[in-house]
Amino acid sequence: MMTGTDVVDATGSGRPSGDDTTEDATANGEAGVDTSVLNKPSWRERMSTTLEVIRANPTGRVVLKAAVALAGLLVVAIGALLIPLPGPGWLVVLGGIGIWAIEFSWARRLLAFTRRYLLMWTRWVMRRSWTFRIALGLAGMVFVSAVVWTSVYLSFDINLVTEVLDRL
């Protein structure tokens, strides 16, 4: 029988927490197996529980929504600045949308849409021949190079092509 002072584990199993793992293991015929590791909730479950506790308080709900909005905006803004550069610009933007998806349903729908079409694109490309994939990769590299050249030229008035040819 549990009293009001007993602590219940986060898995919601209703069992009081304590050091009764060897007792449970022996009762189950698994002597030497630590079942507390098996019953430990995953990080997603812990995060979900934490968010539910925060959302249960009206002030916590507003603060959480504002914090998620600002964090997502910061990550999306950094990703948007990185898009013209070679690197993970779009991946950072998607990470920011993923942060927004914690609290905003429109961001969850946008993320699901993006995942669905990215998966379709990946499957379509993987069904093509190696020569097509190589040509697609080269076309992507040419496009990124053109974007980098344009960005550097318009931002710093430096023509990278003439600079590289002058140094050769």
Structure in words:
Residues 1-35 are annotated as: Disordered. Keywords: Membrane, Transmembrane, Transmembrane helix. This is TIGR02611 family protein. It holds the Pfam family PGPGW. This protein is an all-alpha fold. Helices cover 71% and strands 0% of the residues. The protein is built from eight helices and no strands. Helix 3 crosses helix 4. The chain is extended, with a radius of gyration of 26 Å. The N and C termini lie far apart (83 Å).
Helix/strand order:
HHHHHHHH
Please summarize the sheet with the most strands.
none
**Structural class, please?**
mainly alpha
Record field, number of beta strands: 0
Helix content range of the residues, please? over 70%
Portion in beta strands = under 5%
Report how far the terminal alpha carbons are from each other. Answer: 83 Å
User: What's the overall geometry?
Assistant: extended
Number of helices: 8
Poorly predicted ranges (pLDDT <50, ≥5 residues)?
1-27
**CA-based gyration radius:** 26 Å
Region (Disordered): 1-35
Protein name: TIGR02611 family protein
Transmembrane segments: 62-83, 89-111, 132-156
Pfam families: PGPGW
Short description:
This protein has 168 residues and is an all-alpha fold. Helix content is 71%, strand content 0%.
SSE layout and pairing:
Layout: H1 21-27, H2 35-38, H3 43-56, H4 58-82, H5 89-100, H6 105-126, H7 130-156, H8 160-167
Helix pairs in contact: 3-4, 4-5, 5-6
